[in-house]
């Protein structure tokens, strides 16, 4: 169907594009949920195809959505249960830090750094107040978060059920001279998304196993708890386990454990926090997408910095598509692409 778009009313095309832009603006607050739903649906498409042959497309989309929901609930329940099970231990750590830095306490760190204790006491009081305000704000946002989750799971189901048909119908309307580049970009995008989520799972597991010997060496006990917490926090890239290490560093200072502090600074943060994000993630992603690890690292960090959590997906994806587009313009159609057949699932 050569030149299908040219045969249609261009004004209709412009009108549809304008309506799409208006829809994005109106529903901008839901874009994070929609982007994650669409990207994860792409990864779940091969499973959906297998189920479709046995139980039908609609039932398959519903079943996979239910499985996704149960996995989400299980992870949240496990994390909450883990925290509740170790609540007394965490409270003891927090109490030790508060007692060390609380009002009327003169500790060697503040003396050495010439920190005014009165100012420090005021800072602690303000921090406690802000934490309480943040907690109240988070509670107030529960209905909005619940709605975002509802949108995510409903969108995920719809993307599974109708996403491939939408892609095929849109692809069929393209002029023949752009179909090959679009197909190539589609393959790259799908393989990149697949790599992002698979590599993220690998990084979480690697972080857990790296944390086990470190926390055993640290000597704070509760080794399995800290290691599991580090792995779960790795779901939030870059910042996740770093918060845990910062907290433990303050605790080490509060109990005057210089050895633990040095272990956290020179082993804990570099090995458990930085190594998976700075080396393992970009290298695995680079091998999968044949993009230099430094560029992948820029995609992850830059995406998170400029776009927030959704930048974890969009950052590397946009960079990979940009580089792929450049090679297409050069006529380099044999450019290394992720070698799997995952991308073919949307063809």
Can I get a quick summary?
The protein is an all-alpha fold and 347 residues long. The protein has helices spanning 4-7, 10-26, 31-55, 57-85, 87-101, 108-112, 117-140, 142-172, 176-218, 223-233, 240-254, 258-289, 293-307, 311-329.
**Range of helix content:** over 70%
Tally the structural domains.
2
Strand content: under 5%
Low-pLDDT stretches:
1-5, 112-116, 337-347
Number of helices: 14
List the helices and strands and how they pair.
Layout: H1 4-7, H2 10-26, H3 31-55, H4 57-85, H5 87-101, H6 108-112, H7 117-140, H8 142-172, H9 176-218, H10 223-233, H11 240-254, H12 258-289, H13 293-307, H14 311-329
In words, what does this structure look like?
There is one protein chain. The protein has 347 residues and is mainly α. The protein folds into two domains: 7-161, no CATH class; 175-347, no CATH class. Helix content is 82%, strand content 0%. The chain contains 14 helices and no strands. The chain has helices at 4-7, 10-26, 31-55, 57-85, 87-101, 108-112, 117-140, 142-172, 176-218, 223-233, 240-254, 258-289, 293-307, 311-329. The longest helix has 43 residues, at 176-218. It is globular. The two termini are 17 Å apart. The relative contact order is 0.10.
Q: Notable features of this structure?
A:
mainly alpha; disordered N terminus; disordered C terminus; 82% helix; 2 domains
